[in-house]
Design brief:
Layout (H helix, E strand, L loop, with lengths): L2 H16 L5 H17 L2 H23 L12 H26 L1 H8 L9 H15 L15 H15 L5 E4 L3 H16 L10 H4 L5 E6 L3 E4 L6 E4 L11 E4 L3
Parallel strand pairs: 1-4, 1-5
Antiparallel strand pairs: 2-3, 3-4
Helix pairs in contact: 1-2, 4-5, 7-8
Length: 254
C-alpha cells in the first residue's frame, strides 16, 4: 500500500475516533474520504491494513502493561521515594559501621554499648586500643590495672567476643580466684555471642560477625565451643583444670 492510501486510511481512522458522527459536516467529511478510498484501495487491502494496525496496537499495550517495562520508582509519590532513599542511606551507613566494628575494637564496644563506650571517654578508648595492639602485636603479656567500676571486666569480655569474631579458631581460658566468678564471666561472653535480635534498632554480635555461632551441645557455662571448633572457651580457677593450649589467657579478680 502506498503512502497516499495509508494517509487516507489514517485520516478516516482519526475522524471515526473523534466521535462526532452526529454532525452533518463530519458525516460529509467521512463520506468524502470513503469515496476516495473506494477509488484507490480495495476492500482486501483495507482489511489487511486494519488487522496490522490492531496487532501493532495490542503489542504496544502489552508492552506498556509489562512490569519489566515500567520504572517502579515512577509509580511512587515524592514522599515515598524520599523515604526509600533515606532508608537506603541508613542501610549503607549501618553497613559501614559494622565493617568498622570488625576492624576496630573500640568501635565494636561502642556499637555494643554506646551509652558506656563513648568517644570522649579517653581512658576507655586507650584501653581498647591497647588491647587491640596486644592481640595484633608480638607482646605476650598485657596487665590492666584500673580502679573498680571502670569497665575492666566488661571490656575484657567484649574483647574476647571480638577476638572470636576475628578468628573463630582461637582458644581462650579465663581464670579467677574462684570458679564461680570465672564461670559467670564465661557465661557473659557466651551469651553475648548467642544473643538473638529482638529489637530491630539494636545491633547485636551476630550483626557484626554473622558467621560466628555457639556450637549446639557444647555450650556449658564454663566450657563451650564455637561452631566448627573444639574447646573454644574454658573458665577455671586455681584449683580447677588448666590443661590445653589456649593462645589467650586471662587472670584476675574481675
Amino acid at each position: 500500500m502506498n503512502q497516499a492510501k495509508r494517509r487516507k486510511i489514517e485520516k478516516l481512522q482519526g475522524l471515526l475516533a473523534a466521535g462526532n458522527h452526529g454532525a452533518a459536516e463530519s458525516e460529509r467529511e467521512d463520506l468524502k474520504v470513503l469515496k476516495e478510498l473506494e477509488q484507490d484501495v480495495s476492500l482486501e487491502e483495507l482489511k489487511a491494513y486494519m488487522v496490522r494496525q490492531r496487532v501493532k496496537t495490542a503489542a504496544l499495550e502489552e508492552k506498556a502493561n509489562d512490569p519489566q517495562e515500567i520504572n517502579p520508582f515512577s509509580l511512587l509519590s515524592t514522599d515515598r521515594l524520599a523515604e526509600l532513599t533515606e532508608h537506603r542511606h541508613k542501610i549503607v551507613a549501618q553497613g559501614a559501621q559494622l565493617e568498622l566494628a570488625q576492624r576496630n575494637f573500640f568501635y565494636f564496644c561502642h556499637l555494643r554499648a554506646p551509652d558506656f563506650y563513648k568517644p570522649d571517654r579517653d581512658f576507655l578508648v586507650r584501653l581498647c586500643n591497647e588491647m587491640q595492639e596486644f592481640y595484633e602485636g608480638p607482646e605476650r603479656v598485657l596487665i590492666v590495672n584500673l580502679p573498680p567500676r571502670h569497665g575492666k571486666s566488661r571490656t575484657a569480655g567484649l574483647f574476647e567476643q571480638w577476638v572470636f569474631g576475628k578468628n573463630a579458631a582461637e582458644q581462650i581460658m579465663t581464670g579467677s580466684y574462684n570458679e564461680k566468678l570465672s564461670t559467670t564471666f564465661s557465661k557473659a561472653v557466651r551469651n553475648g555471642i548467642a544473643e538473638e535480635k529482638t529489637d530491630p534498632s539494636k545491633i547485636i554480635y551476630n550483626d557484626i560477625f554473622p558467621d560466628v555461632r555457639i556450637q549446639r551441645g557444647e555450650a556449658a557455662m564454663n566450657f563451650w565451643a564455637l561452631e566448627g571448633q573444639y574447646a573454644s572457651y574454658l573458665a577455671t580457677s586455681p584449683g580447677g583444670n588448666r590443661c590445653g593450649g589456649c593462645r589467650l589467657r586471662g587472670y584476675g579478680a574481675h
